[in-house]
Amino acid sequence: MKVAVVGARGHIGSFLVSKLVRDGHEVFAVSRSDRKPYAYDPKIWDKVNSVFMSREELIASDFFDTVKADAVCDLVSFNVGECEAMIEKLTHGEFYVQIGSIWTYENKKYLPVDENHPKNSVEEYGKNKGIIEEYIKSLVKSGKLRGAVVHPGHISSGEWMPINPQGNLDKDVFMKIRDGQEIVLPFLGLATLHHVHSADLANVIAACAENHDKANGEAFISVAPTAMTMRAITEELFEYFGHKPNIRYVSWKDFVAEVGEQNAAVSMDHISHSPCCTAAKAEKVLGVRHEKTIMDIYKEYLNGAFLR
User: Fold this and answer.
1) CA 73 to chain centre
2) CA–CA distance, 183 with 264 (Å, rounded to integer)
3) Which helix (H) or strand (E) holds 233?
4) How far, CA to CA in Å, does 258 sit from each of 100, 236, 245, 254?
5) Which of 89, 142, 215, 249 has the lowest CB atom count within 10 Å?
6) Percent of the chain beyond pLDDT 90?
């Protein structure tokens, strides 16, 4: 197939382009700049048709009319308006894959969360991703589009820092665990986090593009095989560095005082929008099994970017 990947050199696109090339497809990689992709392999990227333009420039161009792709993977639209502008350019029956988020499932009615769970986020990002899914499904139902949505957990790999076991982006947390220093956790450390490795996510997106009939009109959650509690992640990381777990459990008020308001706000965002989910549908319908566990993701980072 001809596959256009919009947002081709980012966290998702870098891995998706490589997957599609390995699967034998002709790939048009659209990105704003020529920055080096994650996990760069020249043998892969030498086979890619690289196109450099912003999303706005892409929409204003005749790119889609010229390329006539079989599938378009849209990694850069974050609200219905942006999504609609992209879809309006698809006039050759392209199969459209949009990236959502498990943040669309905010108030957990049951666990594990699956694709039938109500999309009930009141936070803008998750709310918009839920609205986009309904919009795409309505277009498919009316025969105006062929497409699918993939909802990933927290996207991670060894190339950049994943959300730490406190749920924020403070690299010092990893350093403290490495050195055996005390880590504070709120809510007895029982809030869950659910990551997904970019390579596993890329496999689901590629499977949607390659299996139009099975994926059309569907949504798929893409997450690691299991979620983990903040406590379990922290304990395993201490043990990974050869230490006994050194954790102190505190109230939310004390947690904010310990880590600062900015880090605490990021933590609250992630533990509020990172429910225990299941990717069983992707495996059943598309045959894609998520291989990387959450600890695999952390260890890959700790053996890679963390050391640089």
Assistant:
1) 13
2) 14
3) helix 230-240
4) 33, 22, 18, 6
5) 142
6) 92
